[in-house]
Amino acid sequence: MITVMGATGNTGRKITAALLAAGEDVRALGRDRTKLAALADAGAEVRAGDAGDPTFLAEAFRGADAVYALLPVDLAAPDYHTHQSQVGEATVASVRAAGVRHVVVLSSIGAEVPSGTGFITSLHRQEARWRALADEGVVDVLLLRPGAFYESFRAALPVIAQEGVNADAVAPDVRIPMVATADIAAAAAAALVARDWQGVEVRELVGPRDLSYAEATSILGTALGRPDLAYVQLPYGEMTQVLIGAGLSADVARHAVEMARAFNDGLIRTTGARRLDAPTPFEDVAAELAAAVPAA
Ligand SMILES: NC(=O)c1ccc[n+]([C@@H]2O[C@H](COP(=O)([O-])OP(=O)(O)OC[C@H]3O[C@@H](n4cnc5c(N)ncnc54)[C@H](OP(=O)(O)O)[C@@H]3O)[C@@H](O)[C@H]2O)c1
Fold this sequence. Notes:
With 296 residues, the protein is an alpha/beta fold. The protein has a domain at 2-147 and 179-205 and 272-276: Rossmann fold (3-Layer(aba) Sandwich). Helices cover 45% and strands 17% of the residues. The protein is built from 11 helices and 12 strands. The protein has helices spanning 10-21, 33-41, 54-61, 80-98, 119-135, 157-163, 181-194, 213-223, 236-245, 250-264, 282-291; strands spanning 2-4, 26-30, 45-48, 66-69, 102-106, 140-146, 148-149, 165-168, 178-179, 200-206, 230-233, 276-277. The strands form 3 sheets. The protein has an 8-stranded parallel β-sheet with strand order 3-2-1-4-5-6-10-12. The protein has a two-stranded parallel ribbon with strand order 7-9. The protein has a two-stranded parallel ribbon with strand order 8-11. The chain starts with a strand and ends in a 5-residue tail after the last helix. 43% of the residues are buried. The structure holds NADP nicotinamide-adenine-dinucleotide phosphate. NADP nicotinamide-adenine-dinucleotide phosphate binds at residues 6-12, 30-32, 35, 50-52, 70-73, 106, 108, 119, 123, 146, 148-149, 152.
């Protein structure tokens, strides 16, 4: 039996589907019982609860041959890293309490960098917690480090609809390793079944080619029927205010912009750590994102 955290999210939903298709027993975790009901209909055992609750997690992990572990993002957190630490510590402690041997961890490229990478700094700290547990010989941990998710451009769609441009703080011509969540899910599901590593192993996961925001915007524009869609780089301060206006806490907005700055400065990059290439091009996901936009 395999427990999947965040089973109603981008990666977890696809991992759950892949594992069920492979005939595995799956325990799917999330908070929203309505969203979980669809996974129950598909054959998963579902559990609703908060990832910051070690009692809930330890019960959810008990009896599992492997766990897919992620740090859910809380865009409203007043102190992002503190919230991530609480959930991260609860997850690691619960794996220890439940006696799970194999854990596939969703991390990110750039997680080897200790600070200055915004959201990814929390993943660096979380990797350290997993490494400490593995160093005790308690667990075998696979640290999956994907590039930026193609699906993150879903958040740009309302801005494109309202303003007629895509806007962010990332420089237009900086090429960024990106990947489809379907390819992350395929790699994670295969590892959860195979359990073919020992100690700590790092696997990077990036798509066929690194993309700049200008290129990605052009591809997305073509998929949306707007081939002339432009990308506009906003100054860091302005982008922070835009994100706060969109409902992010001031601290989360600051980390989002710090991550953009880290991409611009070349701080977040692949290291070649068993780089597993993922086949899906951005064009495929851009078409899916465009198809989900309601007709005007
Ligand atoms: N976006 C990127 O480009 C990127 C790149 C590299 C790494 N990452 C990392 O990927 C992770 C997110 O993965 P994802 O995109 O697959 O997830 P996601 O789509 O953001 O979904 C989050 C999942 O976690 C659940 N969840 C949220 N808060 C929770 C809580 N407090 N307790 C229990 N469950 C909770 C959600 O359930 P509900 O249905 O209840 O909301 C949902 O199933 C983050 O750690 C992020 O740093 C992201």
